[in-house]
Amino acid sequence: MTIYGALFYLLAGITLVAAVLAVTRKDPMHAVLYLVAALLATAAIFLLLGAPLPAILQVVIYAGAIMVFYLFIIMLLGPRGEGGSIAPRRAALPGLLAGLFLAAAWIVFDGDPGVKTVLSASQASAAALGAFLVKTYWPVLEAVSILLFAALVAALVLCRPRRPHPGGQAGRT
Amino acid sequence: MKTWLLAMLLFPLAGALVQPLCGRLFGLGSGNPADRGHWAAIVACAAVALSLCAAVAVLVLAQGRTSALALCPWFGMDGFTAQASLLYDPLAGFMALTVTFVSLLIHIYSLAFMRGEQGLGRYFCFLNLFVFFMLLITLADDLLFLFLGWEGVGFCSYSLIGFWHRKTANVVAGGKAFIFTRLGDLGLVAALAVMAGLWGASSLSLVAAKAASLDPGTAQALGFLILLAALGKSAQLPFSAWLPDAMAGPTPVSALIHAATMVTAGAYLLLRLSPLLAQAPLVLEATALVGAVTALYGALAALAQKDIKRVLAYSTISQVGYMFLAAGCGDVPGCLFQLMSHAFFKSLLFMVAGCLIRAGGGEHDIFKLGRMASRLRRELPGVCILFACGAVSLAALPFTAGYFSKGRILADVLGLPGWPYAVSAVLALAAAFVTAVYAVRLVYVVLAGQARESAPASVRGADVAGINRMAGVLWPLAILSLGFGFVNPPHFLGLTAWLDAALANAPSLPAPALSFRFEPALAAFEAALALAGLWLARRLYGPGQRGTPARTGLDGTGMLASGFGLDALYVTVVAGPYRRLALLVASSLDQTVLDGGVTKGAGAFLAFSKAVSGLARGRITDSLAALLAAMAAALIYLASRLG
Amino acid sequence: MIVPLEHVLILAAALFALGAACAVMRRGVIMILVGVEIMFTGAAVAFIGAALRWQSLDGQAAVILAMGLAAAELAFGLALLVHARRRGGSLKSDRYTGLGGRT
Questions:
Q1: Residues of C in contact with A80 (CB under 8 A)
Q2: B77 Cβ partners below 8 Å, 6+ apart?
């Protein structure tokens, strides 16, 4: 076990623990914060696995922007008890299915010999990745930007300040 | 000869099928619907008359020979064949003659008796059909063919007993008759099955040929099964409970079916199968014993009845018991002799009873009829004489037909060794005495009343002529009742025994040789028994003894009158538990298990559907759970393929 | 030498399963979206691992694009949630049954 390997297992453990905690918290605020921790650990894993640009972007965009936005919305939406607690009965079926899923996936992975190769440490420089992205995946980049634009417009439209409805009271949906 | 045999069989069948149509055709001219029935009746009588002519012709042509006639193959399957075949021997000849002769007289009597009734087409159809089936039983060789006739007479009997079907009690009585005889038929079917298993076919000729080669156990078993069938059809103990109730049918029906022909079919079957029974002495002893017990039972029960037809019904049970006794002694001519003389005097008695009932305005009670006795004697003297003729023959007063036939049977049973026959002899003698008592009782109670009694004025003038006309056809029967005995007198009288000679080569045990010197003594003893019975009845019921019926307990109620409670026994032991079982099955099995099962199944379906519909509520959680389940399933499948 | 690819993939599968379980288990819309985010993370880890294994930049490009997608999706979702909440709706996913059947 190399130092990288040990590091990987450590970071993986942190990620999983944080994710589990995020899933089981009653208060959504706490859950999101644990999610942030998981994301940061994931960013470190990315770095370990030779992807510095995705790692930084994970920290800046995902954990930084997206999760903060999430927290703002939670604070905007009102009382925090609305997260809903989990009854053990409700958790039984999803837990079972997730367990089955994981077990099946493990068996599938075990069956394939190509998967046993040990990864060799290497780095992909940011410049190389950027050039690759723009050269090969530029249509997808454009599409994602249109998508983000659409999301922007949708957010603006949907969250306009409330004004009296011509039809009367706002009903329950 | 084949033609005549076929003609004899088919004329009644044709009559049954054709007469309603003829009735409509011929009666079209008149506006009176009763005329239709009248024409149907005439066609039916003509059919039976033609059948009688054919029977006589065959008897003359056959000249004592036995001939088998195969009409057509019926059906055959693996291991069993059945044919429509006839076996004509002197036994069958005389039986056919009796059946057609008595049927003809009864048909003519019915013409007058049932005049104006509704549904005459149906009545005569079944009456003719009955004659056809009875002739089938008489002539059949193949036992399955005989069984066809056996069931046919049962069915016709059921239909005719319930002729006045608007009254449910009549239909119930018909059903009771059918079910009881059906119980006996189990024996016949079982015997057929055994024979089919042994020989691949079942017919009388086969039985005659192969009976000697049967092992004793099989012969006994077959014998008992046949005995069972005979007991059912002939209303012997323990299957006798249906005959008294069968009196719900019209009187001519009672005369034909339940006196002269159908109830004797059981004894006739035993006679036809005598080669088989000869191999099974145990069965013969049992037959004799059952016959004797039934004879006494019937006689005692007849003593206590107050409905005139029920007296005659129990009397029939008793007299057929004598026939079984004769069959149990192995005496074929003797049994046939009793059969024929019983046919004559019993049908005579029944038809006279019908006249008396008609004269009394539908009154069946002999004591009430007795109140009109003086009017009856004055206005219907012929009827009274006919009644007396029948009754003396029944009572076996000396030199009547009943006297000789009964004497023959008593001589048989006394001449055979072994305790069953000894016991049977005692019972038969006792029954002879009681028979005389009740027969004479009947005559005295109905006909010996005095003018001083307050009589219901029910013998209307117009009816008298009609009744006398009805009775006109009965004179031949009266003559036969008195004189038929001389056809087969006992040996000691030195006269020729015609019947014995005609049936000389009929298969039977060697005639029990009661020693020559005992015969006169027995005849004298029998005459003494009859006269003693007559004296006792005169003492109890003769002129001037009006108050006695209630005192002696013979007024139609009590243990004797109900046939020693046989009916009640059946209800308690068989019908009651069966009914409870049926109710139990209906309520618990049918309702709870079957209905409940189906309902619960439906309920399960509904619950399942409700559960499934719960998935379609549109909840996001359900959709996500479904997605996750699908992913897990897909991965598990992949893992199973790759792993 | 780091770890076998298998272990990276197992981590990815575990994260994915966790996220799916969270999405199914929780009743609040917010928590469902948290589950979705965890699933995205799992996918991203798998991509990076595969990119390192086959020394190809496609995996890393995919991660960047997935991030963009996650952002858009979250924006949409939360905007809808705010909109519904403002009109008197609830934060519980059970209340939104418009696609449901008659019963």
A1: none
A2: none
The closest of A14, A31, A21 to A67, measured between CA atoms, is: A31
**Contact status of C17 with chain A (Cβ, < 8 Å):** yes
Among A93, A117, A141, identify where a domain stops: A117
Which two tokens mark A26? 């009653």
Q: How many CB pairs under 8 A join A and B?
A: 37
Mark yes or no for CB contact A104/B636 under 8 Å: yes
Residue of A8, A20, A46, A48 to mutate, interface with C, max C Cβ within 10 Å:
A46
Residue after which a domain boundary falls, among A117, A145, A161: A117
Q: To the nearest whole angstrom, how far is the Cα of C31 from the nearest Cα of chain A?
A: 7
Contact C34 A31 (CB under 8 A): yes
**What is chain B's alpha carbon radius of gyration, rounded to the nearest angstrom?**
30
B399: left (phi over 0), alpha (psi -120 to 50) or beta: left
pLDDT of residue B410: 87
Tokens 């069948």 label which residue?
Answer: B13
B73: enclosing H helix or E strand: strand B67-77
The answer on A155 and A94 residing in a single domain is no
Mention every residue, 6+ apart, whose C-beta is less than 8 A from residue B30: none
B642 close to C (CB below 8 A): no
Query: Which residues of chain B make contact with A89, given a CB cutoff of 8 A?
Result: none
Q: How many domains does chain A have?
A: 2
Where residue B72 falls among pLDDT bands split at 50, 70, 90? Answer: confident
Identify whether residues A30 and A101 lie together within a single domain. Answer: yes
**Residues B585-606, mean pLDDT to the nearest whole number:** 87
A29 & A103 share domain: yes
CATH of the domain at A41: 1.20.120.1200
Q: Which domain holds residue A153?
A: 124-173
A112 and A76 within one domain = yes
Query: What is the interface pTM, i.e. ipTM, of the complex?
Result: 0.90
With contact defined as 3+ CB pairs under 8 Å, the chains touching C are A, B
Closest CA to B529 of B384, B395, B350, B342: B395
| pLDDT(B116) > 80 | no
User: What distance in Å separates the CA atoms of residue B499 and residue B486, rounded to the nearest whole number?
Assistant: 10
Q: Give the model's confidence band at A6: pLDDT under 50 very low, under 70 low, under 90 confident, else very high.
A: very high
Asked if residue A24 and residue A109 are part of one domain, the reply reads yes
The tens digit of pLDDT for each residue in B607-636 reads 999 888 877 777 888 888 899 999 999 999
- Same domain membership, residue A16 and residue A70: yes
pLDDT at A4 over 70: yes
Cβ contacts of C34 on chain B, cutoff 8 Å: none
Under the banding of pLDDT at 50, 70 and 90, the label for residue B551 is very low
Q: Are residues A83 and A138 in the same domain?
A: no
Q: Quick one: A131 and A66 in the same domain?
A: no
Tell me the pLDDT band of B507, cut-offs 50, 70 and 90: low
Other Cβ atoms less than 10 A from the Cβ of B538: the count is 18
Closest by Cβ to A117, choosing from C18, C53, C70: C53
Please tell me the pTM assigned to this model. 0.69
Query: Which of C6, C9, C24 is best to mutate for the B interface (most B CBs within 10 A)?
Result: C24
